[in-house]
Design brief:
single chain; about 325 residues; alpha/beta; Quinone Oxidoreductase, Chain A, domain 1; Rossmann fold; 7-stranded mixed β-sheet; 10 helices; about 30% helix
């Protein structure tokens, strides 16, 4: 028997409870993993609170990522004892996820743990950190270099944003952090942000082209903020867009793209090819200092997840929140 957070529907509402399961309750997949650590992401917040229609089939074990050790395997890709990471692939949405002490998954969803990381460090990074690294790689591929000019990170106090600020600053970029919470400035400055802009400022309606400010940007918000970011990009600048925390809509014009040669590049971590996600994990293990794992992560147990999920939706969480299914 082992503990798991189970989501069920009662009178049209999503209800989360910690229950005991048996291995026979798990999906019939090839690799059984002893989960050592998971993490709370914005998508998990939507799923657990029922705010978004993330989950359509119940009961469901949420948790879109986890790290642990292979307990048994019917695949020749992994053997018992292998440390592994899982992010994406619809796990925690369509397939049972990481908010449990055990998970049974497909081998092609798993990435071997890179040298220099363990389960706690990997989940301090988690889906959010992987997404941040993929965004940084996207800006690098677009030609945005440390000497190109200021790089803006929107939603900087959140999971993706905080890791993006840290990565960019470690790589030598001049980072401006946008956050709707002034009280997070010291936290963001500690991660390497050298300047700040407010949510109110970036939410102001903009003209098709504004004064050039940014050589690059990582955007997790969408909506009005992304429209302003595009209007303020330097000539030849690039935006890596990975989220829609504010809105999935984008009301803009073609002028930044055809008059300033700006590029808007989408970043997906859910179905990212295994070769690219493996490289991103290698880069994360290489670039992040040991101190980062204390600065941007806190740990909760399964019973704390419902309240933490409500908090992340309300924008009350900074940095990364880890979920230890053994607590």
């Amino acid at each position: 028997m082992f503990n798991a957070l189970i989501l069920e529907q009662e009178d049209g509402k999503t209800v989360a409870t910690v229950r005991q399961l048996e291995e026979s309750d798990l999906p019939d997949e090839e690799v059984l993993v002893d989960v050592e650590m998971s993490s709370l992401n914005y998508k998990d917040g939507l799923a657990v609170t029922g705010t978004g229609k993330i989950i359509r089939d119940f009961p469901m074990v949420p948790g879109i990522d986890f790290a642990g050790t292979v307990a048994s395997s019917a695949s020749d890709r992994f053997v018992p004892g292998d440390p592994v990471i899982l992010t994406g692939w619809g796990v925690g949405e369509r397939y049972w996820g990481g908010f449990a002490r055990k998970a049974r998954v497909r081998p092609e969803w798993l990435v071997p743990m890179p040298d220099g990381l363990d389960a706690r460090k990997a989940m301090t990074i988690g889906t959010a950190g992987l997404t941040a690294m993929l965004c940084v790689m996207t800006l690098e591929e677009a030609g945005v270099k440390p000497g190109s000019g200021k790089v803006l990170v929107t939603g900087a106090a959140g999971g993706v944003g905080s890791v993006a600020v840290l990565l960019l600053s470690r790589l030598g970029y001049e980072v401006t952090a946008q956050s709707g919470r002034p009280e997070t400035r010291d936290f963001l400055a500690g991660l390497g942000a050298s300047d700040f802009v407010s949510r109110d400022e970036m939410n102001e309606p903009c003209r098709p082209l504004e004064t050039q400010r940014w050589a690059g940007a990582i955007d997790v918000t969408g909506g009005t903020i992304l429209a302003r970011v595009l209007a303020e990009m330097n000539y030849g600048g690039a935006v890596a867009a990975c989220g829609l925390a504010a809105s999935f809509k984008l009301e803009t014009t073609v002028m930044p793209f055809i008059l300033r040669n700006v590029s808007l590049r989408g970043v997906d971590s859910v179905y990212c090819p295994i070769e690219r996600r493996t490289e991103a994990w290698r880069r994360l293990a290489q670039e992040l200092p040991d101190s980062a794992f204390d600065e941007i992560g806190t740990v909760i147990g399964l019973g704390d997840v419902p309240q933490a999920a409500a908090n992340i939706i309300a924008g009350k969480i900074k940095g990364r929140t880890l979920v230890d299914p053994n607590l």
